[in-house]
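Narrative summary of target 7.
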Amino acid sequence: MLRDRGGVTLLIYALALPVLLGFTGLAVEVGDWYVVQEKLQTAADAGALAGAWELKAGGSAAQAIAVAKEAIAKNAATPSAIAVTTPPTSGAYAGDSEAVQVSLDQQQQPLFSGVFHLAAFDISAAAVAKLQAADNACLLALDSSNDAGAVTLNGNVNVQFGNCVMASNSSNPSDAILINGNATFDGKSIVTVGNYETNGDVSVTLAQPAVTDSTPVADPFANLNISSPTGCDYNGTQNYNSSAVLQPGTYCGGINVNGSATVTLEPGTYYIDGGNLIFNGNSTVQCDCATPGSGVTFVFTNQGGNGQTGTVTMNGDVTMNLQAPTDTSNPSAYPYPGMLFAQDRNGEQGQNATFNGNVNSVLEGAMYFPNGDVVLNGNLSNASNCTEMIAWQVIMNGNAGFATTANCAAAAITPLVVTDVQLVQ
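Modeled conformation, tokenized:
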């Protein structure tokens, strides 16, 4: 009987069966762990993205955290521990106020694996999403209402924006941006909270698809303190009917340039307090800005505080050649580097910057009219390396031509950035 080997296979099989079943069960359980981890990662990604989008829309850190947790709850994962922070407290993006970090943990009870590992263990997932620069814009309408035509191009307008974007914060569902007639727009893209509409024989050429139903583009100068020094260097409206050289200072009452006058502006800041900047006729306005980094800034404000903040108007065959300062090392001379026109945001709405007639210009820098419109009429033409228009609304009519290469960084002017949200970790 000792030499009889019959039934040995059955014995070996019986001894090996628990091990085989254990490994089969372990394989199934490991697969389950991967499913749990995938669900956690999906929830973490969704939470981080939702929180970052809330930041992009102007929400506070507390609001971003609440939105992130809502997004996590809508997923199939059932984490036992949730941590959402902005700014992140660890990792490569620690301290970044434009980033949202999500960490999820789920305690897992062992099944078949209990044979090898009796204690419960954690499965975790983490994600970081942040605001990233997506594009540069040359034009932004800040109008955040439901207004139609917050950006309007009419007639034979020709807008050449090269590698930058035209943007509108209007939420109008059909024509937050309105392009009519024989207008031409050539740029990288269109970005709008609402939608855009074209009518007539319009030509729109975009390097990238338009982005509609977007979150608003942030006002790049929302925190800029725009004001004038107390007192006046020049009292009453200053009228120039012949050639003159102007010095920086506070002009209480405004500046009028008429006729065929040629006005040369010395570099610095020109505060137009309680008045307007008006150029008429065949006048020529130029900047004596040969020194690198030099330039001029016009600041429209009102020391009286009654809301009657002025603006700029150009009529007739005006020739302009102006550039904003780019020197950031001399804040007393250049407190607003990169700014060509800056209107006090506390002024009354409706004080529009108007460019009429056969105006030929090179306007290098940012034009900021947060409560007024920028209106371009007639045969105006502009060509520059970097012109940024940020206004309540922007209207271009007639044969206006506006061209900029959007090469703001090369011109040492801070680009107007359109942000996007991306997972970075």
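The chain has a mean pLDDT of 86.
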